[in-house]
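Subject: sequence -> structure tokens, single chain

Hey, anyone have a minute? Need the predicted structure for the following. Not urgent.
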Amino acid sequence: MNGWTEDLPSIDNTAFTSHAQESVMYAGDGTTTLAEFQLEKRDPVESDEVSDYVKHATVDTEDVRFYEHNGVDLPGIARALVNNLAGGSLEGASTITQQLVRNTLLTQEANDISIERKIREAQLALNMEKEYSKDELLMMYLNTVNYGDGCYGIEAAAENYFQTTAANLTIAQAATLAGIPQSPTFLNPKTYPDACLSRRNLVLDRMLSAGDISQEEHDAAQAEPLGLNLAPEVPEDGIYAYPYFTSYVRSLLMEENNPYGCSYADLFEGGLTIYTTLDTTLQDKAEAACDAQRARMSSELDTALVAIDPKTGQVKAMVGGGDYKSSQVNIATGTGGSGRQAGSTFKAFTLAAAIEKGISPKTRIDCTSPMTKEIDGKEQAFENFANIDYGIRSIESATAVSSNTGYLRLSEEIGQAATNDMAKRLGVTSPLSTVYTTTLGVASVTPLDMASAYATLASGGVKRTPLVITKIEDKDGSVIYEAQDSSERVISEEVAGATTKSLRQVFEASDGTAQSAKLESGQPVAGKTGTSTDFADHWLVGYTPSLSVATWIGNPAGSISSGEQLNCNTLWKDFMDQATSGRSIEQFPETKDPSYNNAFNETQKAKLGADEDAAEAPDSQTPTSISEGSKTANSDDAGTPPDATGKTLTEAKTLLADWKAGYMTEYSGTVAKDTVIRQYVASDGMIVIVLSTGPKTS
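Reply:
Had a minute. Here:
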């Protein structure tokens, strides 16, 4: 017997009573619960947080001589033996202290039916009684005992079965819970209510016999039904809200060698508190916009959206599809599936790479369609969308209309690898391979990739790794992870600014592919549309200085054609109109032009002529007033200015009569003379229209 007790576990501290505390994940507001990860439902409490009814019911039922013995109750063992042999209700012989030992210190031996285990249990119980007071031991028991249905501890049980606290349990409720530990499975009131009711009434009898309740209290409690008020079922995966974002964060935490200072075991046993970047207001708006888009489409199609703050890299909203439970595929991140062809959204990377190499967006490029190219010994034909012949136009204009042939020729000039290199530098992490059509977006990427890469442009060339977790605390409140600034300049401010200026034309030019997605507020935006092979994937990735948003539409099953007329313009606009509603107009910062010293500029000028789309000294122009109205876009109560794009100057004057407005002129080979090419808000709130003077003739 001495040998059996030589290697007993330590009882020097009570850490052994704090098993598997749940980890909780919160949204960016620090209060919205996104998920709870737990192996067991536990919520330890102090003695003053537990009803005396619970304490009396537990002692009267499990160990009536608890306050008299020293951990092992020999008279109790004898009494139980006699009672059981006489055919009475079965009674256990273990004291509360012995049960505590068995449920905590000796869990690995709990099912070992042997004299050795009983001796070890008894010795530890005696040791515990010397180390701790009776009240301390009772609370250790109440905080660790199994109450069935995955509940360990009286507080978890009170919340689970009655949606109340241990302090507020009634006599009948306390007796119900006190009866369960004898057989947590077969006395579970959810699955065996009749057995649980009988056991509860037996507990009430024992409370009456012990003098802890009166006859009237006893009779009233026994007359009550079980009266369960069950808490909502905990999701199997622990996720309560926004499953695409939340499951993505969980997957990062469960990766081996992750940077967050926690493991799988820590997540499910360590009582962690995880703070994330999710903006629930923006998330709700993202889901509403995606729901509205799904309602407009075939049921076979789905949507995805990711919104990132360019100034921090924080992911503010994420929608990875319409039904997470049925598919478990997150299109936004590629989790459970794969990326999607980027289409012409990749042209933004070719544009940035060309500008960085000194090619001016005003340089003209051949955008005629179709074009042929010999690849691997075979002649191949390439076309613009619908084989539209866009003729000769500037790179900036080719961007606005998304000319495939123009960009293939530009890509030839800078080298196809330059597009992939720029994509990676800006933030695309998906695997990329270089082919002739790289600029047309044949690579598979994710909305998270694209929102992140375009956020680098929005931030003036500073890349920030997408951030979803800001801080993690352990069960003691100590910070084990806190996000650090990941800022890294990857392109110059001038290159980023020039790229943004050209990408604005996608929205602002009258023939821009995202012209219909301009925001109601007049907030300037930049970005690029995209459609993949056979119209399987549809994209719009766009940004303001404060928000980069990637949207996708397609068939989740894979590369399945979904119609050439489909696009993401309405989806993107719906979300961004809501996201920017009520906010002051935020201008993109003015930047100097990069050095456009590439010989390609002069070569193209000699071959194709001077740029007909360039403004006449645009930086030196001062808007000519067309209206002295009192409203400005910066006024809090002014509302949204009307859009004059496509109107004549006379029509624009009438439309903007109530606003402070002016105009500037610009040559255009694609917009008729005296027609508004685009409209923007100046820093002083003036509405400025850009009026076409027709093509340059000399």
